[in-house]
TrEMBL record:
<dbReference type="InterPro" id="IPR037401">
    <property type="entry name" value="SnoaL-like"/>
</dbReference>
<protein>
    <recommendedName>
        <fullName>SnoaL-like domain-containing protein</fullName>
    </recommendedName>
</protein>
<dbReference type="InterPro" id="IPR032710">
    <property type="entry name" value="NTF2-like_dom_sf"/>
</dbReference>
<dbReference type="Pfam" id="PF12680">
    <property type="entry name" value="SnoaL_2"/>
</dbReference>
<feature type="domain" description="SnoaL-like">
    <location>
        <begin position="10"/>
        <end position="112"/>
    </location>
</feature>
Length: 126
């Protein structure tokens, strides 16, 4: 099993999301995919996810430091580890906020994305 292809697919998906090419990114999601964000917030589409994050920051991107890939039954689990950087609503920049995104891939498409990060802690400390 070639485990580099799933990491490349996830990296491409994350880049498309950062670039707000949501239609293209959405093509990498399986029908009925679940996007689960901090606080247990579940979204069924990228448009829903973007709308829910309005007001938290002006923009955010990821330093994608490494990928962990492993078979999970018939699926493949991919974890992206790194640091968030961006700009708060007042224009102040931030960097170095930890994140872990866990993806489940099936038949070459993303069926689940689970997002974990320290963004809420960073907001509370401001």
């Amino acid at each position: 099993m070639n485990l580099t292809q799933p990491a490349s697919l996830v990296d491409h998906y994350l880049q498309l999301c950062e670039d707000r090419q949501l239609d293209q990114a959405g093509r990498l999601l399986a029908p009925g995919a679940r996007l689960v964000f901090p606080g247990g917030r579940c979204f069924g589409s990228l448009d829903e996810m973007v709308a829910a994050s309005t007001g938290t920051y002006r923009w955010v991107r990821k330093h994608r430091d490494r990928y962990l890939v492993a078979p999970d039954g018939d699926d493949i689990a991919v974890t992206s580890l790194g640091r968030l950087y961006g700009q708060w609503p007042d224009g102040t920049e931030f960097d170095g906020i930890r994140y872990a995104d866990v993806f489940l891939l099936r038949d070459g498409l993303i069926v689940e994305q689970h997002v974990f990060n320290d963004l809420a802690m960073a907001v509370a400390q401001r």
